[in-house]
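Lab notebook, bench 4. We co-purified these components, and the gel suggests they stay together. Before we commit to crystallization screens, I want a quick structural picture of the whole thing.
Request: model the full complex, all chains together.
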Amino acid sequence: MTIFAVVVSRLSKAILTLLAIAILNFFLIHAAPGDPAVVLAGEAGAADEQMIEQLRERFGLDQPLYVQLGKYVAGIVQLDLGYSFRQGAPVAELIADRLPATLLLTLTAFVVSLVLGIAFGVAAAARVGKPSDTVLTTMALLFYATPLYWLALMAVLVFSVWFGWLPGFGYETVGANYTGFARVIDIAKHLILPALTLGLFFTAVYMRMARASMLEVSQLDFVKTAKAKGLSDAVIRRRHILRNAILPVVTLAGLQAGQLVGGAVLTETVFAWPGIGRLMFESLAARDYNTILGVFLVSAAMVILFNIVTDIVYRIVDPRIGARS
Amino acid sequence: MTTFLIAAALASPVAAQEAGGRLDIVVQPEPPGLMLGLVQNGPTQLVAGDIYESLLRYDSELTPMPSLAKSWEISDDGLTYTFKLNEGVKWHDGEDFTADDVVFSADVFLRETHARLRASLAYVKSITAPDPMTVVFKLKEPFGPFINAFENGTMPIVPKHIYEGTDFANNPANATPIGTGPFKFKEWVKGSHIHLVKNEDYYVDGLPYLDEVFYRVIPDAAARAVAFETGEVDVLPGGSVENWDIPRLAEMDGVCVTEKGWEFLAPLAWMWLNNREGPTANEKFRQAVMYAMDREFMRDVVWNGFGKVATGPIASSTNFYSDDVTIYDHNPDKAKELLAEMGYDGEPVSILPLPYGETWQRWAEAVRQNLSEVGINAEIDSSDVAGWNEKTSQWDYDMAFTYLYQYGDPALGVSRNYTADRIKKGSPWNNVEGYENLALDEKWAAAATMVTPEEREAAYAEIQKEIVDDVPVAWMQELTFPTIYRCNVNDLVTTAIGINDGPRNAWIKK
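Here is the predicted assembly.
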């Protein structure tokens, strides 16, 4: 099959999957205790039945569940994610507002962890058993085992509170009105701590995976053959070992990529990053059904999309995969 | 004719105020909207309190002060309230503010949207504007607390020219609120901040002093403390950080802490005890719970010494508080005695904490500890905000933490939790415990409509004495949420609603 055919077949299946996910999510969220009208009324500090009735009517919660589902699915099919009554805005708009911040954060973390992870993994494998290998693997273990939340708080304590080098939270300096390059620098500064916090765990995972995989492949016969041919170590590592050892890392990277949307709830919360993970979390707490469903759906779409991308990357890295199927 | 008149000149400079500067205030959680006529939750009141105004403000003694109204009169029979409005007031879009806006807000808009005000408006026969600068409220019968209903969170005045004849809830103007207040809405970056700027045309000369106010949305309590430490924000409104962080922040150089600014709301915390079923349906059990708890310890340890142990349903900072009631001190022996008398068989009871952070969780743990010491088998049953609303409003609990604002008068913020006509499934803000005492209900109703404060005082003293013996709920503590701010910010908390209208008068010493 050509890559194009693969993509078409996968995309058509993806649409059905997404629809099924949307319906499943709908029932899941309605099964949770609590309803948005009571939460909203409750926050006002006072509510009578008239108010709760009004809210239910506005939210469409006074209608039977199947009617609500029908409306929701009909909307989805027309690419309409519905309206957030709580926030008084279309869900698509709310998500579009927050998505760039999340993508910036998660993509940075993704690239940083992939690059660092593979680089350290390859380096450690090349020096297996030596002190530098021990240092690298120990650090990887540490970052793998440390809770993200604690790590984030410590990073803020050290780099923001003690040294004052980096901003501890937020997306950019509020009220500074930077434009152009100054704004890019400002956002980049704000990005460092959350992106590192989010990326360290996967850096550790990639590194361990790359190291183990490199060592395994380096024992195989074709590597011995290459050595016997008299190729240099660097060339063998780059062209023969790494290329074969990278596949498991790609698999994992595909998994991480699936979390690019909505996978950063904790980091976004600690660092007050105005992204979609927080939007989801806050909407969940308020039972803002349409918004939660919208974020879930967009996340699911991303997971499916990245799965397809991962498959394509497989075929590029290892052409045998395409040939076999 | 009873006349209340306070010259606006009272607000004249004592120290030399300096104009200019910006103030960064934490707001949490992010408000669902800023149209104060539609949403009145805490964060909305905090931010929109600078944009919208009502007829009156109240000082820390709950004495009314001018706001949109410059003077007012209450007739001797307590039935007619006449307000003279300030002249030269403009809406933020430049339109003139008139008495018609007040009539529209109170009689049309808020009647439809504001549950709490609707209860007070039930006493109102008519609202009229005899001339553009005068508004007259005529009541059906005297209603003592009515003079307290003109606070900004209770009766925000909204622009008639924008809302008349529209679908209020879905009016696009809700996204860009237009008020008469000292600050104008500039920008709201969702998830990050809300930006307000000085209203240059504000009708009080010289006010406001600040150029701009930023409300910063920071979801994590520890991050909020850090934001204050690093100087990113200047003000942590009550409840922004966990209580154990307060002493640490207060010790920093140039940091001030105040417990003032909660007199109007006077939040009182209690545990609803399910009066319908289970051990808590037994009065002796409820009294045993009161004796079992060491509430002084809880105040000192869980709340770091902030607040005051409650003696009954009415907070000591509001009008008509009486201390002539049975005092439930920490007396485990007495509690055991009562439990033995009722024949408590060890049936387990659940405690539902408020899902508002660690402090509340620990409070529930302290209660559980005290209860187990007298042999009550209690379990903590945690939940998120929506789950808490569901469980309490569906009466699915044994003991549940809550707190309620008192709004300056027992008839506005207290009786709603105790009278039988407020037993209604589905809303967590009424008589959730299911307390029925019809004789007392009549006294609550009568006390609300008495004309003189002296009569009301006597009536409420009697009510407090009686209800404290019944223990329909376990009164815990009068909460104060300390405001933490930099000392160079002056006049931030000057009224009974604290920083909800604080930026109006605040100024920064350079």
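Chain B touches chain A through 56 residues (CB under 8 Å). Worth comparing against the SEC data before the next meeting. Residues 291 and 331 of chain B are 5 Å apart (CA to CA).
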